[in-house]
Task: structure prediction
Amino acid sequence: MSAITTHVLDTACGRPAAGIAVKLEVRAGDGWKLLGQRRTDANGRCGALLPENARLEPGTYRLVFDMGAYFASQQTETFYEVIPIVFIIRDPEAHYHVPLLVSPYGYSTYRGS
Result:
């Protein structure tokens, strides 16, 4: 399992959000460096965001969720085109699970296990 994973739940529909494009980036100087990108599976999970054998380093990371395309595929208007979640990794040996609970007009996130 990747050191960084996510799970997206569509709380407006009460089901996992499948097919969402997710990017994992790390802060590099004044910008961001892409580490990996995937789509959520049928259960709304993205378990392999880092390349195989990639080493996690302490730093600032960002998950970017393409919500505009997801809600368009559901024929649903949304306020959020893209949802970025920026977080800090201090212990590169730990697992970081970052769930996203989303609806067309609101979202929340937390560090899971």
In short: The mean pLDDT is 95. The chain has one domain: 4-109.
